[in-house]
Write a structure and sequence with these properties.
single chain, about 650 residues, mainly beta, OB fold (Dihydrolipoamide Acetyltransferase, E2P), 6 domains, six-stranded mixed beta sheet, five-stranded mixed beta barrel, 37 strands, NA-bd_OB-fold, NA-bd_OB_tRNA, transmembrane
Length: about 650
């Protein structure tokens, strides 16, 4: 059968060409397969050009008031220009770094957040904005129901228009609100020193006033904290920032601008040479004579041979002289700045040769002893709150005297001590003798100068009767029987909490009859890595000396192992175990503070040097620590009270 198609027939194909291309000359065939490659190259180049154009195009400039709270702008990228109005805040939560600062453009303020890894580059390259800087930032907006913030997504999106900085800043001796955003420097003696959430906060006595200085935490993420202590002479430059809008402080923006001159380099002079050293930092050695208070300052009268002088200081500095241990007649060293009138403003005291004051009979105290340090002991007759201050009337059987506890001391008293300052209970107080409207008063200027007893002093603490079964001797008694007990007794109790009330540790225990605090040596308190609060204890107690003799664990309850971010204020007094990486280290005169983090949040570990021993730490160390939870000025801390509760992994 023959096909009608032309396939396979050359003559037929020729005929087709004549039909379709009649009158045309046949052209050479073109290979179009290469065009697809050409088109692909053109497309790629086009996309690249679009991307380059998009990257070079600037985001629109926006007013903060127009974008804040505007849900239509959520995730939009805009540029804002304004002045930095906050100290940069750094967080290392979850093991990731973030930096936050606020910008105001005149229409409103917005927080700008920088997250890892851009945050690390921001700090390493020294591009952290500080108060007073004027910047332009390209940010991506996050608009929430009650809060709007911007995210700086790349470092080149931040430009400094101007910086609050000067290579030759003016010297200041006091700060005012009018100095806001100025770059200045000051020098003087450190009179107070604290670790706060925003960094290291200190007061510097310039001789003409006091200047607050903040070394922000953002500088300590990479750089090491300077070794500074009370009494050190420092020179510091930074920008003046108004804390809470009204309290001026110098914020250091570079650790190179903070210089410490150790107190050991301060020259020593005699009392009669002070007038020759006006404006200089010096030290003197003299005998402590009297203490008084006037116009917000403590006046300490000292003598050296026939020469005497009055030294001016603050309560925080004076607290270095524990009146229980060092009384009038003690040899002390004072370091400070000599004022224009030749008086020494002391920023640090050291006790060289203490003279321990003896217990005085209240009836023997007289106005001839005003200013001298005395120690009294007796039962509280009455208490009264006078503003923030606390007044006690104490009787020791020879007479009565008023104990005036300043509000600043009341605020630092342990809550357990406060709870025991009640009428009918005993108290022991050390302080200087003062007179108010013809009435003698003892003024304790430090919390360490107050020891509160949980029972009366005198005949009610002793008994001449034969102990009943289960009382006295070596018998086991209940807590309700403890006030009338004598000799050595045993207690079967549940351990509730542990506290530190200078100069003693207290353990809170309970049984079916009540709950009390017992004075105890820290070495006797069970190791919190093995035994925690909630455990059942058998305590041997000396009722006459009001002190724990020994502790035996009957049934151990382990301290909970918590994440560093889990520790909370409802755990105060409870023992816990935490483990984390050391992020920062601060060494004080009598303690070391570690900031550790396991990825859940930062936690402060406060280690007294009596517990620390010869242990040392480095940033990056992994530690496991058992201790009790406490709170200092709003910051939660875990305090180990035994050296064997500190383990470096």
């Amino acid at each position: 059968m023959t096909s009608n198609g032309s396939n396979g027939n050359p003559d037929s194909r020729k005929e087709e060409k004549k039909l379709y291309y009649h009158g045309l000359k046949e052209q050479k065939k073109i290979d179009v397969s290469k065009l697809k490659y050409v088109s692909l190259v053109i497309a790629v180049l086009g996309v690249a050009l679009i991307l380059i154009a998009a990257q070079s195009a600037k985001a629109p400039m926006a007013k903060i008031s127009d974008v804040y709270g505007n849900y239509l702008m959520n995730y939009a990228v805009v540029r804002v220009e304004g002045n930095v109005v906050s100290v940069p805040y750094v967080s290392e939560s979850g093991g990731k770094l973030s930096v936050t600062f606020s910008v105001n453009d005149g229409t409103g303020s917005i927080d700008i957040r920088v997250y890892s890894p851009v945050a690390e580059k921001l700090i390493k390259e020294g591009k952290v904005p500080f108060p007073g800087d004027r910047i332009e930032a390209e940010i991506q907006l996050r608009v929430r129901e009650t809060y709007t913030y911007g995210m700086l997504q790349y470092l080149d999106g931040l430009k400094f228009i101007s910086k609050a900085y000067s290579p030759n800043p003016p010297k200041v001796t006091t700060l005012t609100e009018k100095m806001a955003n100025e770059y200045v420097y000051t020098e003087g003696l450190v009179t107070s020193l604290n670790n706060v959430s925003s960094g290291i906060l200190m007061e510097v006595d310039t001789g003409s006033g006091r200047v607050t200085v903040l070394i922000p935490k953002v500088l300590l993420v990479i750089g090491k904290a300077p070794k500074v202590a009370l009494g050190d002479q420092v020179k510091v430059a930074g920008v003046v920032y108004l804390y809470k809008g009204s309290s001026p402080e110098i914020v250091v923006r570079d650790l190179k601008d903070f210089t410490v001159v150790g107190a050991q380099q301060v020259p020593q002079v005699s009392l009669d040479e002070l007038r020759d050293h006006v404006g200089e930092t010096v030290s003197v050695e003299a005998t402590l004579e009297k203490i008084t208070y006037k116009s917000g300052q403590y006046l300490v009268t000292v003598s050296d041979g026939d020469v005497s002088a009055v030294l001016y200081t603050s309560r925080d500095v004076l607290a270095a002289i524990n009146p229980f241990q060092a009384g009038s007649g003690s040899r002390i060293k004072a370091i400070g700045l000599v004022g224009d009138n030749g008086t020494l403003k002391v920023s640090k005291f050291e006790v060289i040769s203490p003279v321990k004051p003896e217990l005085s009979r209240i009836g023997d105290l007289s106005s001839e002893m005003l200013g001298r340090i005395v120690v009294i002991e007796g039962n509280i007759v009455s208490t009264a709150n006078v503003g923030s201050n606390l007044k006690l009337v104490v009787n020791d059987g020879t007479g009565e005297i008023t104990i005036f506890i300043p509000g600043s001391v009341v605020r630092e008293l342990d809550e357990n001590v406060k709870g025991q300052l009640k009428a009918g209970l005993g108290v022991k107080v050390a302080g200087y003798l003062d007179e108010y409207r013809g009435t003698l008063e003892v003024i304790p200027y430090t919390p360490e100068a107050i020891i509160a007893y949980r029972k009366p002093i005198g005949g009610t603490t002793e008994t001449t009767t034969t102990p009943s079964p289960g009382q006295g001797g070596n018998g086991t008694i209940t807590l309700s029987q403890l006030p009338s007990a004598s000799g050595t007794v045993k207690l079967e109790v549940k351990w509730e909490a542990v506290y530190y009330s200078k100069p003693n540790y207290l353990i809170e225990v309970s049984d079916d009859t009540g709950r009390v605090n017992l004075t105890v040596s820290r070495d006797l308190i069970p190791n919190p890595l093995k035994t925690g609060t909630g455990s059942e204890l058998e305590i041997t107690y000396d009722a006459d000396k009001d002190r724990v003799v020994s502790i035996e664990v009957v049934k151990a309850v382990a301290s909970p192992l918590l994440e560093t971010g889990e520790v909370s204020s409802d755990m105060l007094g409870k023992t816990v175990v935490v483990q984390g990486t050391v992020k920062s280290i601060y060494t004080g005169s009598s303690f070391v503070k570690l900031t550790i983090d396991d990825g859940s949040g930062e936690l402060v570990i406060f280690i007294p040097k009596s517990v620390l021993g010869d242990r040392t730490f480095n940033e990056g160390d992994i530690v496991k620590i058992g201790g009790y939870v406490t709170e200092y000025r709003g910051t939660l801390e875990v305090v180990p009270y035994r050296g064997d509760a500190i383990v470096k992994e």
